[in-house]
Amino acid sequence: MVAVQAFPAFNTPNSVDVHGQTCPLVDRPGLTCPVMCVQDFADCPSALAVPQCKNNEQLCDDGACHGSCADVVNPCLCAFDASQVATVYKACPEYTNTVTVPAYDPSIKQAQLELACAIEWGMVGANTTVGMGSGVAEWSVDARDKMVWDMCPVPLTARLTYTESFCLAFYGIMGAELVLFALWHLYKRVRERHAVQLRQLCSPLPTTVAADEKTMSETQSEEQSEYTVGDLPEGMMLLRGFDNNMFGAGLFYLALLTTAGWVVLLAVIVSDYYGKVTGGVKYGMLANSDQSMAVFIFVWHLAALWLAGMLACMHTVRNYFRIECPLPEARVVQVEERRAEVVMMEGSENRLTALANRVRNKLVGRLRLDVLAESCPANRVEIGGETRTFIEYHCTRGRFQCNAFDLGNTHRALLASRNGLSSAQAADRASRIGVNYIHVAVPVVFSYFYLYQMMCMWVWFYFNYFKMALVQFGVILVSAVIKVVIRLKSERKVKALAEHRSVCRVKRNNEWQEIDTAELVPGDVIAVESGMEVMCDGCVLAGEIVVDESSLTGEAMPNDTIPYDASGSGKTYSLFAGTKVLQCTGSTYASPSQSQPTLMSSSSEIKLEKAVVTGTPTATLQEGEPETQVLVTATRTLTDKGKLIQRILFPARYSFVFDEQLRVALLILLAYGGVAFALTIWLMGHDVTSWFYGVFVISEIMSPLLPAALVVGQSVAADRLRRANIFCVDLPRIMMAGKVQVFCFDKTGTLTKEGLEYFAVQEISDGRFHGEEQDMARLPHVTQVGFASCHAVTMVGDKLIGNPVDVEQFRATDWEILAGTCEDHLDTLISPFLESHAGGKEKRKTVHVIKRFEFAHARQSMSVAGSFERLKRMAKSASVPGNYDAVTAKWAKEGCYVLALAHKDLGDVDVNTLTREQMEGECELVSLLLFRNKLKEDTESAIMELKAGDTRAVMITGDTALTGVYIARQCSMISPTARVLLGDIEQGRLVWRDTVTDEAVDADKLLHEERAARDEAERALFDVVAKRTPLVELAVTAAAFDYLVEAGKIRQYLLDIRIFARMTPQGKVDCVQLHMERCVTAMCGDGGNDCGALRAAHVGLALSESEASIVSPFSSSNRSIHSVGRPWQRPFAGYKFLINYATTMSMLELTQFYFSVIVPEAVWIMVDSFIAVGLCIAVTQAQTARKLAPSRPTARLLGAHTLASIWGQTVINYAFLFGMLGLLYRQSWFRCHEFDSRDIDTSLWWLLGDNYEAEIISIVCLFQFINGGAVYNFGYKYRRAWLTNYLMVVMYFGMLAVGYPKPSWNVSVYNSPNGHNILPWDFRWTLWGCCLANIVLCNLYEKFVIPGSCWSGGQELVD
User: Fold this and answer.
1) Which of 42, 49, 389, 551 sits between 20 and 30 A of 499, alpha carbons compared?
2) Intervals of the chain under pLDDT 50
3) Residues 6+ apart with CB under 8 A from 463
4) Which of 583, 582, 609, 610 is nearest to 598 (CA)?
5) 386 C-beta neighbours (distance < 10 Å), count
6) Is 555 within 8 Å of 1112 (Cβ atoms)?
7) pLDDT score for 1026
8) CA distance 120 to 48
9) Contact status, residue 588 vs residue 529, Cβ threshold 8 Å
10) Which of 671, 670, 683, 692 is nearest to 1150 (CA)?
């Protein structure tokens, strides 16, 4: 093996001393003489006496005695054949002693060594000089001298000819694969020359299929499309059909085998390096070190390219080995969609990231990486002799397009389906919709960074760095396992929700039978029983049902559902998938003679008679039929539950400043690594060995531990949140949780207590208001009866179930619901008060409810009780007080939930002959019912803590705007001195009114001055909501919000609006998403009608009793709003530590490569395992501050604050390292004893540390590496005191004080001419003092300069 050498580029070692005088040459002892080659053993010098061989031995050409000379290698042939040389020399016996070379000069070391040996052997005189020569020539092919020095021009080791059998096998396999793949590509091009005309373009939105449709072709045409992937419109899907091909299938499996083959080949080469292939002989297969390294580099590059290509094409590579065909004939359909564009938050893009994104987008577009491709098997179903082909895409079935089934949108159409389906109809619909079962597959995630980590590990394993490779491989593996386990845990929750199935009774062919719920289709009629979980969306046809939606929303809010009615709203009669039936009408319908008391009175007959009034076909329940029946209206992903699962499985993508800048930061590190790689090749001798050193530099600069650091930090943060009863099912959201700028709150159940509390009643008579009354007993009879009966409350055992407002209203009356009453009455209510009757008897007043109009959201009323605005329009104008609006507004401003009650005497009529409008029209107002929604005890302190942390709090509520304003003032969300302007739509235009004076104002004018000053502050602080203390606040109703959205003006007012009132669940989602365009946005709610907003927000926190809610990335089981004010741990310090580690490591490696030294192996293990891994974990253990700071910590990897911190530390470290090396070069004991790499083999890197240069570099950089953890343990105002991170304290001081005696284990002989690196005592103290000064200066810089006034006026920069 030829020794690998390098040399410093800008100075010559041992040239001059500290005074500028030429260094005297020193003697070099312990050198081994080369072999002397002679034509005859008699010519050997006397010092190399030929041995006397035993009788059974013979003297061979290697100068030693052997039993046979047949297999003896003659070193004097220098690996040539005897016929290739002019003279066949023999080797003199080996000289066992060593010699000393006086005045040793590495530049002429070979000539000096030959002369020293010649003098030692008495061949020349002692006064002979190098210039005079040793009198013996060096070996050559043409040499004919009597004796020569055995200085072979080539290594004596065997050489790889690349014609060995395994090489020929490799050429054959690779060549055959290339030919086969080329032939397949040509064959595929010919077969698919018209393929572009066979593709179909369609919308991902479901296609509605009519209930009476016979075949799919009647409503859906199969338009062919000539679109290609490059011009695929956004929001559309391109469908491409593929058919299997035996030749292609074989090549696909060959490609998979090749992928595994590259990994196996790398493993074989690495094993050969350690001698594990040929029975302990190193390079037994690849001949020698140089050729082994060259082969490894060649195979490594090919493997990396192949694996990267397979990774890029992992979703389409299987279809490449299929033949594209018409969709009806396809076995597999490839669905291609353009990747939804990431919504960029305002301020997350700067010039550098914008440039990087433009380049990235062009590259992605050119390589078509912005198109998502998914292969869906084409399922064929035989129905009535007809073969239908369907695909399953995003859990939804369709014939090349998602299908939805339309049962009608009128009560007549829905009730017409109450007889269920036939088996043929059910099979037909099942073939189109698919089974009522959502399969959730856990995706396999493999990124390019995993490939980078794997390829780095292969280099480390090969280049005798397997110890550290095993350590880092273990860390990476553990972090990956943690990531997978947490993801699987989250997926299991989704699977538990999505893949549940059971058995139910269904009406098929006019018979009731039990089937699997997976077989349900729209149009089925099922029987509902108490305790069952509903597996579809449906409409109640008969009976009454009380359901619990906690399994779907995370919040236990029982709801009462009644049969479908022509006059009701859909939600009242709807049953949703994922809910659990708490109670329902008896399981079977009994005839009057068999009637027995049940928990809930049957009202099926009455409900059906209501349908007769509107012209619906009449039907009555037959004896033995289930008493509670539901018509299935939607299954699978067309249910509300299915849509929620789809949103969970395929969420929208939003950009975060850290994510945007992380990509750029990695590219910068990679570019820096490329420069360092080139410098390493130049400094380390321009050979194959230098390639390995260059890869080492790249892997240290862009550490494979970066993703592991993030996972560790996220896991630590999640564990801390768990101890505070805050549970996280989406670890990456933790990074954003520490950067929340806007926190949106639902009102009821979040800011306020769970339900409304009864406050008072204000009577109305003769068109005038009277004083409020809190005692129900003192109210008029009509008012008492109205409040006791106008509700939808039912009894489950001894518990009142229904809308929380209804329950509180009924509880305030002290009336009772009597169970088991006559079938002619819906409910019987009993008053708590006695009244006199004939005969002097006193009885409790009894009221029978014979007809009830349920609360309709569209009408905002339940018969003659409901919204005060609605009842004002329904009532006689004479009964409405003139100051009605002023009084109701006053109560609303005081935080009251206001309902109105009206009364109308119908006389003696048949109520079933009157419509709802006829009965409710021209009624008289009776009173206002007032409820108060009280704040939670800790709401105000939590909001104040958010404000102290410069986090904007916003209210998004379904309640009235004035109530929202009152609650906002109570909890200090709005300043007591702030002027609140309410925006609403009046006569088709937006009008802003002062909530106190009710006068119309010009909101734009009032906001102008404040906005100008605020925008200036925002530009200075880089924060869209920084330091905002407005004197003018805005509130909008849902109508005003919709108007601003449609007019495109909502973004103009968005960050001035504090309260969004009367918002629907979808409106809450839209509002949150608008905020997300500008800021990191959080949403906090109770998991009820705000579950969509919770899921959409960057950070969603559900105040849920369950341990974790699938509707939100975070959930808190203690239901305290103080959960939002908790300082959330952000795993950013670990990233900064590793980047600083990378810059310090590159400095170390480039410096040592310049001197051609390598720090000892023990130092590498210490740095890359204990320091890099240990301190990275220790940094994450820093405790968060107890309260939110006035500003947010930066998340910008490329921001001024981060760059100043990292590069400031780097400059300080560089200065001290170069300063110590400069100081070393001023020491007299060092000069003229410098490390000269011309005299050693630099490929043996683990033996190049026994010199002064490597020692100084090691000690200085060790202090710098260790101190890097301490530096980023500072958290300024975002974390607690430095010493509270106990793990960091122990590791930091333990590592600084570490020392060890002389090791008892074997230490390899160092490949160095000096032989030692012992420093004088005085210089040791100087070195220690400089390292200590380095530590102190770095800590002072990070503690006082980075967060100081020179950066941001005394505060840390924010984004």
Assistant:
1) 389
2) 1-5, 213-224, 553-558, 566-571, 587-619, 857-861, 1026-1027, 1107-1108, 1349-1359
3) 692, 696, 1245
4) 583
5) 13
6) no
7) 43
8) 11
9) no
10) 683
